[in-house]
Amino acid sequence: MILLDYRDKRPIYEQIVEKLEKLIVSGGLSADEKMPSVRSLGMELSVNPNTIQRAYAQLEQEGYLYTVSGRGNFVAPESEWRDGIKQKVLQEWITATRNARLSGIPLEQLQNTLKDVYEEEKQ
Amino acid sequence: MILLDYRDKRPIYEQIVEKLEKLIVSGGLSADEKMPSVRSLGMELSVNPNTIQRAYAQLEQEGYLYTVSGRGNFVAPESEWRDGIKQKVLQEWITATRNARLSGIPLEQLQNTLKDVYEEEKQ
DNA sequence: CGAGTGTATTAAGCTACTTAATACACTCAG
DNA sequence: CTGAGTGTATTAAGTAGCTTAATACACTCG
């Protein structure tokens, strides 16, 4: 389902959250699809179930998952997280743009790169 | 000189590095200007001199500072860090742009916001 | 009923960050 | 030359966060 990067120095649960976020946002997981249980994903990634639980809890808090007692965790419908992710990503993009401007990168270069990125092949 | 943000959960030395980077890149500190000593900046920020030393060492490693033995740390000339910061900032901007595209933010919105950011008043 | 869910708790170990206390070589003003 | 002020290195200790491990319990469903 996902693969951990051992060079990444962030906490494991944060890495899991980020990778699952991207998987959900990109459509790799559909609404109401059942997530692996904390125990099975823990086995798969060689990580303690508690750590998986911590990642799932954060994903639920952010609206990406919902829990059905005794049944498992499921992917939340897009309406639950669409606005949040857009606002978050846009804010980070604006910050990155301000930094670019501060570093002396010309507007024209960003305009060209922006078009290039939007023309990249889908993965 | 700088102010620490106690809500920021990153290590103190990283926060200091980031704030001094921005201060140098934005022109708030001139080339060959003398930096505060590790002891005095430690006093000013209520932080151990070792922590300041760690931040200074990283800034030197990144080309923002140079050290004169027995005299102190000084701001490096722009040629030492200009290429590095541009490449780093541009790479982060491209990543943010890919995330924006992945989240469904339309190209036109970014194009408009891009112009807006470059028209913001200088601080 | 029993296996499989989420969830909670407690204890322990580990790592990174930070502080503290020294120590030493260097530079420069007096 | 001397001493104050530099950077730098070392060692020890404390703290906080992350992770694992071992249980336990309520829930759902075949």
Which stretches of chain A of 5+ consecutive residues score pLDDT under 50? none
From the N-terminal CA to the C-terminal CA of chain A, the straight-line distance is: 16 Å
Q: Please identify the structural class of chain A as seen in this structure.
A: mainly alpha
Task: Tell me the greatest interface.
Answer: A-B, 31 and 31 residues
The overall pLDDT of chain A, averaged over residues, is 96
How much helicity do the residues of chain A have?
55-70%
The major β-sheet of chain A equals:
2 strands, antiparallel
The global form of chain A is elongated
How many strand elements of chain A? 2
According to CATH, the fold-level topology of the largest domain in chain A is: Arc Repressor Mutant, subunit A
Integer tally of domains of chain A = 2
Topology as H/E string of chain A?
HHHEEHH
Tell me the radius of gyration of chain A: 17 Å
Q: What is the count of DSSP helices of chain A, taking H or I runs of 4+ residues?
A: 5
Strand order of the largest sheet of chain A: 1-2
Kindly describe this structure.
2 copies of one chain form a homodimer. The first copy, chain A, is mainly alpha-helical and 123 residues long. Chain A folds into 2 domains: 12-77, Arc Repressor Mutant, subunit A (Orthogonal Bundle), CATH 1.10.10; 82-119. The first copy, chain A, has 5 helices and 2 strands; from the N terminus they run H-H-H-E-E-H-H. Chain A has helices at residues 12-25, 38-45, 49-61, 82-102, 107-119, and strands at 65-68, 72-75. Chain A has a two-stranded antiparallel sheet. In chain A, a hairpin with a 3-residue loop joins strand 1 and strand 2 (72-75). The longest helix of chain A has 21 residues, at 82-102. The model of chain A has no long low-confidence stretch (mean pLDDT 96). Chain A binds chain B through residues 22, 25-26, 82, 85-86, 89-90, 92-105, 107, 110-111, 113-115, 117-118, 120, and chain B through 22, 25-26, 82, 85-86, 89-90, 92-105, 107, 110-111, 113-115, 117-118, 120. Chain A binds a DNA duplex (30 and 30 nucleotides) through residues 11-13, 37-39, 47-51, 53-54, 56-57, 67-73.
